[in-house]
């Protein structure tokens, strides 16, 4: 009886040891698989963002105000033109402050903000050159640089957009693919261009002759425009590709 009882206890102990060993192997295998998974979103997730923010709406309002600004300059309404320039400058500062203060930054915002500046600059350049308030060679330099940068932006958008590359996805800016980072000289050039165009727009309202000073300013802006355009060729971090996984197959 004693021998039979000891044998039963040994069998139970052996069975329990085997069960514990299987549990340990299962736990170790599960832990190893979890540790091998890369951090971050799964491959089936897509990167999207909220593009309907107040800073973006203010930026869009600057773009929509440009046709009225051009009309005012062509029709010699420089009081209205000056008021619209003041509105553009104010909203440019406000939307940047709100984006930083309330964490409303977006990839679309990094595209819209320089696009608004370029739309404003193009409007001022074309209309002021038409009114012969700025020389035509300077207008060609400014517009030529912006056209080349715009074509480059379309190409970067296409190459950086993850597949499938459809027309609808190309124009869906809630799917960010690349972020444009202006170079340092480009920031200074934009400020100088806007200052030149602003002073030129206001100049008909000033009872003094400032043409000599404007000519020197125009030469400076022409030089910085060429320099800023070339800076995108050698600046490595001017464009940042937003990495994201392709959409799941249906």
Distance between the termini: 68 Å
Helix content: over 70%
Shape: elongated
- Poorly predicted runs are 40-45
Given helix and strand content, the structural type is: mainly alpha
Mean pLDDT: 80
What is the overall number of helices? 8
Radius of gyration: 31 Å
Q: Order of SSEs, N→C?
A: HHHHHHEHHE
Query: How many β-strand runs?
Result: 2
* Strand order in the largest sheet: 1-2
Q: Report the sheet with the most strands, covering strand number, pairing sense and barrel closure.
A: 2 strands, antiparallel
Q: Tell me the fraction of residues in β-strands, as a range.
A: under 5%
What attributes characterize this protein structure?
8 helices, elongated, 250 residues, two-stranded antiparallel ribbon, mainly alpha
Would you give an account of this structure?
- The chain is mainly α and 250 residues long.
- Helix content is 70%, strand content 2%.
- It has eight helices and two strands, in the order ααααααβααβ.
- The protein has helices at residues 2-36, 54-74, 78-101, 107-130, 136-160, 167-170, 184-202, 211-234, and strands spanning 178-180, 239-241.
- It has a two-stranded antiparallel ribbon.
- Helix 5 (136-160) runs parallel beside helix 8.
């Amino acid at each position: 009886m004693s021998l039979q009882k000891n044998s039963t206890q040994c069998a139970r102990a052996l069975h329990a040891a085997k069960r514990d060993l299987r549990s340990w192997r299962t736990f170790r295998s599960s832990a190893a698989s979890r540790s091998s998974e890369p951090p971050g979103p799964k491959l089936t997730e897509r990167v999207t963002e909220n593009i309907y923010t107040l800073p973006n709406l203010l930026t869009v309002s600057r773009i929509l105000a440009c046709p009225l600004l051009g009309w005012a300059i062509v029709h010699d309404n420089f009081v209205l033109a000056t008021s619209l320039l003041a509105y553009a400058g104010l909203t440019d500062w406000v939307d940047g402050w709100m984006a930083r203060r309330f964490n409303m930054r977006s990839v679309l915002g990094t595209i819209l903000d320089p696009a608004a500046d370029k739309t404003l600059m193009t409007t001022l350049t074309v209309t002021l050159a038409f009114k012969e308030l700025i020389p035509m060679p300077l207008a060609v330099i400014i517009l030529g640089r912006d056209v080349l940068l715009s074509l480059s932006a379309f190409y970067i958008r296409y190459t950086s957009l993850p597949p499938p590359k459809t027309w609808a996805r190309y124009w869906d800016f809630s799917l960010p693919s690349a972020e444009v980072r202006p170079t340092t000289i480009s920031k200074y050039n934009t400020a100088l261009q806007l200052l030149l165009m602003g002073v030129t727009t206001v100049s008909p309202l000033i009872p003094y002759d400032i043409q000599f000073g404007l000519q020197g300013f125009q030469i400076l802006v022409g030089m910085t425009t060429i320099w800023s355009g070339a800076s995108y060729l050698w600046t490595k971090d001017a464009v940042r590709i937003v990495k994201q996984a392709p959409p799941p197959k249906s």
